[in-house]
Amino acid sequence: MEEDTRIDRIYYQKLVRDRIPELIRLQGDACHVEELNYSDYKRELRVKLVEEANEALTATSTADLLTEIADVYEVLYAFILAYDISPEDVKRRQEQRHIERGGFTRRLKLCWTEPC
């Protein structure tokens, strides 16, 4: 009887941090990566931001939440670089939005609106 030599490949098709292929190989596993063109990279950053935000949503401990928030920060930093936006411009816009719309310190949840 012939031995099963099938490879149980897991497909991801997602943007990963720069060292992930190296870390996979250090574990003794194989992987294949492709370098994205700039347009695809920018699109995948948006997908990655949603992925990391969802992981923050489902974090079950403060330590896990801290890790996920750090991952969101890393994606935001990549956005800043990819779109050639200065961190100072982001901070100014954040402050402007805070003045115009407020923050989240009052813990308000909008339940409904209706026309008057």
Explain how this protein is built.
The structure is a single chain. By secondary structure, the protein is mainly α. The protein has a domain at 20-91. 54% of the residues lie in helices and 0% in strands. It contains 4 helices and no strands. It has helices spanning 20-26, 38-57, 62-82, 87-101. α2 runs antiparallel to α3 (62-82). It is elongated. It starts with 19 loop residues before the first helix and ends in a 15-residue tail after the last helix. The model has no long low-confidence stretch (mean pLDDT 95).
SSE topology:
Blueprint: H1 20-26, H2 38-57, H3 62-82, H4 87-101
Q: Keyphrases for this structure?
A:
116 residues, mainly alpha, 4 helices, 0% strand
Summarize the structure.
With 116 residues, the protein is an all-alpha fold. 54% of the residues lie in helices and 0% in strands.
